[in-house]
Every structure is written in C-alpha cells, then in structure tokens.
Design goal:
The complex is a heterotrimer of chains A (102), B (344) and C (173).
Chain A (H helix, E strand, L loop, with lengths): L5 H21 L3 H25 L4 H31 L13
Chain B lengths: L4 H35 L15 H11 L10 H18 L29 H22 L3 H32 L4 H6 L4 E2 L3 E2 L2 H4 L1 H14 L11 H4 L9 H26 L15 H19 L7 H30 L2
Antiparallel strand pairs in B: 1-2
Helix pairs in contact in B: 1-10, 1-11, 2-10, 3-4, 3-10, 4-5, 5-8, 5-12, 8-10, 8-12, 10-11
Chain C lengths: L1 H21 L3 H21 L3 H26 L10 H7 L1 H24 L17 H10 L2 H22 L5
Classes of the chains: A mainly alpha (102), B mainly alpha (344), C mainly alpha (173).
Chain lengths: 102, 344, 173
C-alpha cells in the first residue's frame, strides 16, 4: 500500500456519502436525518478538497468554504422547522407528519 | 528521523510547556485567593507554608481524597468525558503560543529552535478552533449531570461563549490584517523595533480598541467575572459543575485557570509585543518579558473579578451582541482603511 | 507516515459516521458526528489544506454542531423506539434483511471492480511542482473571482437567520 492516491480519497468520499444516504432513508428521527445530511455534505467537501489538491488549484478549498456556509444556513432553518413541528405534535418521528399525503 | 539535539530540545520544550501550564494553574489558585484577600482587606491563606505558598498543594491533596460522586441518572460516558474535554482543549490551545525568541540555549544547539510547542502557519485559527471545542466540555457537563441547575448553567454558559467568540475573532482579525500573517511567531516579530527610539512597536498602541475588545471577549470566553453568571454561586448553586466532585471538579477548575493563562498569553503575543520589551534583555532571557506581561494580565483578570459586580444574563448577552460585536466590526473597518491609506 | 495517518483517520471517520447513523440516542449521534468531523479535519491537513481544516472545526464542529446540541437538549429529544408493526416488518423482517444482504454484497462487488480497474492517479500530477496554496491565495481568489458568490452567501445567511427566528418563534397572541 503506497501513499494515498486520489482514488483513495474518492473512495472514502463515496463510502461516506453512501452512509449518509442510508441514514436519510432508514432513520425515523428528524434530527438524525438532518445529521445524515451533514455527513453527505462532508463527503462532498472531502471530494472537493482532494480534487483541488490534484489539480493544484485553490478553487477546491473555496468551494468547500461556500458549501460549509450553505450547510450552516440549511441546518439552522431545518432545525427551526423541527422545533416548530415538535411543538405541534410532541414527537420527532417523520411518520407523524403525514397530513400532506393522499 | 535522526535523533538530533534539536529534536530532543523541541520535545523538551513541549514537555516544559505542559509542566509550566500545570504549575501556573496551581500558582493561580494561590494568587486568586491572596489578591482577593488584599482587595477585601484581610490576609489570604497564611497557615500552609510561608505566606501560604503551599496552599495549592493542600487544595490538590484535598480534592484528590474526596469521594467521586455521580448522579444515578447521569449519562455515564458523557459525564466523565466532559471535564476531560474541557481540560484537553485548555491545554491544547497553548500549543501554538510562542513564549520566547528563537534560542540556541546558550550555544548548546547548532541551530536556534522556536520556544513554541508547534509552529503551524495558521496558528491563530488553531487557537480559535480549539477554543470553540472547549464549549463542548461545558455543554456536555450541563446535560450529562441530569439536574436542572447544571442544564441551565451549561446552556447559558455555552450561549455566552459562542456569542463572545465572534467579537474575539474580529478583534484578532484586525491584528492579522496588520501583521499579514496567521502565525503567532510572525505576529510577534512584526512588533519588534521602536518608534522614535523608545516607544515599542506594540499593536497595543496601534489598536487600543482592539485590545480592549479582545480582553473583554476573552474574559467572557473563560467564564470569569463579571461574566460568570453561568457559574455564579448565588444564582445557580454552581452552574454546570454542580454535580461534579473530586478529580472531575479539579479538571474543570484546572481548565478554567489554564484558559485564563492562554487568553492572557495570546493577548500578550498579539497586542503587547510578546517577548519584546521596552528595553532589550540579553539573548536567551527574552521570555522574562513575556512572563511579566502575562502575569500583569492575570493580575488584571483577578482584580476585575473581585471588584466588578456580575452582569445579569440578559445584560450579558445584550452587551455581547449589541455593543461588543458592532464595536469589533467598526474596529476592523477602521483598521482596513488605515492600512490602505496609510500603508502601515 | 502519511499512509498510516490516512488509514487511521479514514477508519475513524467511517466508524463514527456508521455509528451516527446507527445510534438510538440523538445526543450520542451528535457527539459521534463531532468526532467524525475531527477526523475529517485531520484528512484535510493531510491534503495540504490547513485553512479548510481549521474552519471545519470552527464552523462545523464548533458552531453547527452546537446548534444541533442545543436543539437536542431543549427538545429533550426522545430516544427512538424500536420500530413497531408495519415498520418492524419492512425494516426488520426476514425478507427485507435477506434482500439487503444481497444488495450490499452486489455493492461491494461493484466497488471492488471499479476501484481495481482505475489507474492509480497520484495526488500530485507528475511533472508539475507543488504549488503552495496558502491562506493568502485563498483570500485573493475568494475576493476577486468569487466576490459575487461571497456577497450572495452573506445574503443567504441573513435570510436563513430571519427564517429560522420566525419559524421557531412561539405563537404569542
């Protein structure tokens, strides 16, 4: 096993993304779903930084900066929605919020 | 990697830094009680050792022999992890703080080494990052104790810390702009030299408001008076460390004092010129200036605690967001203007 | 040395992420995610990106996760119950379990096939010297070419702040 190559980082990123996606689909708790989304965003960040290092450009790191900011904004609004929903129904399970279903 | 004398010296510096931080916490315990006593016109501890100098030893021994309690419903892993996290963050932040000029230890080494545990070129960001991690020790302590005083104290304390982190960061952003580097050694070296032959080129004179904002934010960050509402004895029993005893409490205690030392050391490096003093000392002894300045700042810290009344929690938050943060932003803007138009 | 660090950090990241997704107690999930972020920060340092490593800790682990922690503590988020009834059959029944095992086996086979087939691309393309990517370079590019995105992001944050406050506000008559 030599030095970690770009392939290693991309594979790690893919694994993390898959774990995050599995979390979004399988968990029945709103906060854990939001946490899995953060895992996915981090996987994407890792891809950007690795690719930035490969192409010897600083753009990778700049995009990561923006992704982090957007993730912060999204986490804030997502959690505010979770709080509002919790106030209504006292539960964090997404199965309780089905009024928009057929 | 070959074992060179520089490597051994560097490891020695790391060990020495850790050891001195532990000692400084012990010295601060005594200093706090003595200064408090003199402010309140009484003697401090004077029974143990000459002028009470062995008092910290007695305190530590007492804490070690106490019974280690834990509430039954407390989350066991988090309950024990919280003080460890606090103490680790406090010590780790000091790793990038330089406390003396490059030295060859009086000719023992061939090349000079820095008196710093680790020189990262984004040193200041590392300190900021580790300070943000210190919030977790308090939040987790408040939650894991499963008691209402602890939870309230933990929540308030962490909200206070993250609010004042903003002003803290903006205050040192102005210094970064002036020095042009994020590395603490380079910032200190940018403050060497004199104007008119005798006024040292410290950033204190160029950025007085930045210094004041940094100190106020630093005091709030370390949860010391007048911003110590979250651990106020009269209001919240003892806030987030109510349920802790013996060595866990000692770790929180230690973390608080080491945080004080770190904030004072960073303020010295950023604004007071680090180890550059009004008159230069012989080579190899510059760290004495650093020590004097840190000691003065620590004395100021303790003096403030026993002189000023405590801020109420909403006053505290209002001050942080409505007064200190805009002041820091305006300071940054004025610094930017000055740099562009006067080419500092 | 770098290889060793990479494998350790990658292992910590994957382990922590798997546990985040698998934990019952949301508080433990948040703490494990912070551990995962710490390991990721180490990986960024290995990729010569100290600025990103620092702001990963400052912003993600230091601010966003504190937000999550506050919400978990204030809502006293209940630990998730074991799935019952319909969900127990869908997620935990024998049929779906076997299907899941087959699917993961297929996934692992696909990953192994793909990864073995690629030519190994070194992180530094041969023939080019390593350019230093300092914080100064990031700043210059950020405020020149990406200035619009920067300003748009600040408006985004403002909008998110206002939105979050309004959504989470208590109904006052």
């Amino acid at each position: 096993m030599g030095e970690p190559t770009l392939n290693h980082y991309l594979a790690l990123s893919a694994v993390l993304f898959a774990i995050g996606t599995a979390g979004v689909f399988l968990r029945r708790n709103l906060i854990t779903i939001l946490l899995s989304i953060e895992v996915m965003l981090n996987a994407v960040n890792l891809t950007f930084v690795a690719a930035g290092k490969y192409w010897q450009t600083v753009d990778g790191q700049i995009i990561v900066f923006f992704v982090m900011t957007v993730a912060a904004a999204e986490a804030a609004v997502g959690l505010a929605i979770v709080i509002a929903l919790f106030r209504h129904k006292e539960t964090l399970s997404p199965d309780a919020f089905t009024t928009l279903k057929w | 990697m070959s074992i060179s004398p520089e490597l051994i010296a560097q490891l020695g510096v790391i060990g020495f830094t850790f050891f001195m931080l532990l000692n400084s916490a012990a010295v601060l315990v005594l200093m706090e009680r003595k200064v408090a006593a003199f402010v309140q016109q009484r003697f401090g501890p004077y029974l143990v050792g000459p002028w009470g100098t062995l008092q910290p030893l007695a305190d530590i021994v007492k804490l070690m022999f106490k019974e280690e309690l834990r509430p039954l419903a407390a989350d066991k892993a988090l309950f024990y992890a919280a003080p460890i996290l606090s103490a680790t963050a406090a010590f780790a932040a000091f790793a990038v703080v330089p406390f003396g000029a490059d030295t060859t230890f009086f000719g023992l080494l061939d090349r000079p080494i820095k008196l710093q545990a680790a020189d990262v070129n984004v040193g200041l960001l590392v300190i900021f990052a580790i300070t943000s991690m210190g919030v977790y020790g308090i939040v987790l302590a408040g939650w894991a104790s499963n008691s209402k005083y602890s939870l309230l104290g933990g929540l308030r304390s962490s909200a206070q810390m993250i609010s004042y982190e903003l002003a803290y960061g903006l205050a040192f952003a102005a210094v970064i702009m002036m020095a042009g580097s994020l590395s603490l050694s380079e910032i200190v070296n940018a403050q060497s030299g004199y104007w008119l032959g005798f006024i040292p080129k410290w950033y204190l004179f160029l950025q007085p408001f930045g210094f004041i904002i940094f100190l106020i934010a630093g005091v709030a960050e370390t949860n010391r008076a007048p911003f110590d509402f979250p651990e106020a004895e009269q209001e919240l029993v003892a806030g987030y460390h109510t349920e802790y005893s013996s060595m866990s409490f000692a770790l929180f205690f230690l973390a608080e004092y080491v945080n004080m030392v770190t904030v004072s050391a960073v303020a010295t490096d950023l604004f007071l010129g680090g180890w550059h003093g009004p008159f230069p000392l012989p080579a190899g002894f510059e760290w004495i200036w650093f020590l004097v300045k840190v000691f003065l700042l620590l004395f100021f810290y303790i003096w403030m605690r026993w002189t000023l009344p405590r801020y109420r929690y909403d006053q505290l938050m209002e001050f942080g967001w409505k007064w200190l943060l805009p002041a820091a932003v305006i300071n940054l803007l004025v610094t930017a203007f000055a740099i562009i138009y006067f080419r500092w | 040395m770098e290889t060793f660090a990479f494998w350790i950090l990658a292992a910590i990241t994957v382990m922590a992420s798997v546990l985040v997704v698998g934990q019952r107690n949301p508080m433990h999930s948040v703490i494990l995610l912070i551990v995962s972020f710490g390991a990721l920060s180490g990986l960024y340092m290995l990729l010569d990106a100290p600025f990103v490593a620092a702001i990963q800790i400052i912003i993600y682990a230091g601010a966003i996760m504190v937000l999550f922690l506050f919400v978990v503590m204030l809502l006293n988020a209940p630990t998730e119950d074991a799935p019952t009834g319909y969900h127990a059959k869908m997620l935990g029944g024998a049929g779906p379990r076997r299907f899941g095992v087959v699917l993961s086996f297929v996934l692992v086979l696909q990953l192994a096939w793909i990864l073995r087939d690629l030519s190994q691309t070194p992180l530094t393309p041969p023939g080019e010297t390593e350019k230093a990517m300092t914080v100064y370079d990031i700043g210059v590019k950020l405020f020149r070419e990406y200035a619009f995105a920067f300003e748009a992001t600040s408006v985004l944050i403002l909008v998110a702040m206002v939105g979050a406050i309004i959504l989470a506000r208590k109904e006052t008559r």
